[in-house]
Design goal:
Blueprint (H helix, E strand, L loop, with lengths): L3 H4 L3 H12 L6 E5 L4 E7 L2 E13 L3 H10 L1 H4 L7 E11 L2 E8 L8 E14 L2 E8 L9 E3 L1 E10 L6 E10 L6 H22 L14
Parallel strand pairs: 6-8
Antiparallel strand pairs: 1-2, 2-3, 3-10, 4-5, 5-6, 6-7, 7-9, 9-10
């Protein structure tokens, strides 16, 4: 987990590393290889939890809309593709492109503790219709009483495709769940979890996504 006091010094390094990984499918061992969805994994030396990557080659909404729902307004829509999500709030808006976000999750499975995460989110517009986000857990807030703290590494790249009405969405996810949930179990169960998540994201943005996220016609 990153120290909040020094996290601002690491933002550009996070963005550069995530962009390289998001664009490097060959660096991930394939787990799912469908025309509409690819999922892969790779181990890294600093954590026994694997880094996962999923890719939706075509989402039925432009990048601005998808990025708005999947990143900018995550607290409004996260429950649409993550059923464990309960609530959250913006802890601090550090700049127009950086903020600290807190979220809570309740698995609802006997013996599995509730989880929370406090993460620094950094975004960039790389080009018109190309948006990048990096997420890292930071020690800005202590875990809520009764919650185990997730140590999270995430990244998202959304690119509008030719024609302007659809986009590609790629996502990185590594979750050290903390508590008594071991890495080997998380690694084993993440494939189906991520397939379900990606398919729900696809459905959420079907037909252009929610009207509330669409820009008005000029």
């Amino acid at each position: 987990m990153e120290s909040f006091t020094t996290a601002h010094q690491r933002q550009e390094a996070w963005l550069a590393r995530d962009l390289a990984l998001l664009n490097d499918a060959a660096a991930f061992a394939p787990m799912v290889n469908r025309a509409d969805l690819q999922v892969g994994r790779r181990p890294l030396p600093d954590d026994p939890n694997h880094l996962f990557r999923w890719r939706l080659p075509r989402v039925a909404a432009p990048a601005d809309v998808v990025f708005a729902g999947f990143v900018t307004h995550i607290l409004d829509y996260h429950h649409e593709w993550t059923r464990e999500f309960v609530d959250g709030y913006v802890v601090e808006q550090l700049s127009p492109t950086a903020r600290v976000v807190y979220q809570r999750f309740e698995p609802g499975i006997p013996g599995i503790a509730k989880r929370d995460v406090c993460a620094l989110e950094v975004t960039r517009e790389l080009a018109p219709g190309v948006k990048l986000a990096s997420f890292r857990s930071v020690d800005r807030l202590p875990p809520a009483p009764g919650y185990a703290r997730i140590d999270w590494w995430g990244g998202a790249l959304c690119t509008t495709l030719d024609g302007g009405q659809t986009s590609e969405l790629i996502y990185l996810d590594r979750e050290n769940q903390g508590g008594w949930l071991p890495a080997w179990l998380v690694n084993r169960t993440m494939k189906q979890y991520l397939v379900t998540q990606a398919e729900q994201v696809q459905r959420f943005f079907a037909d252009g996504g929610p009207m509330a996220l669409r820009r008005p016609e000029p």
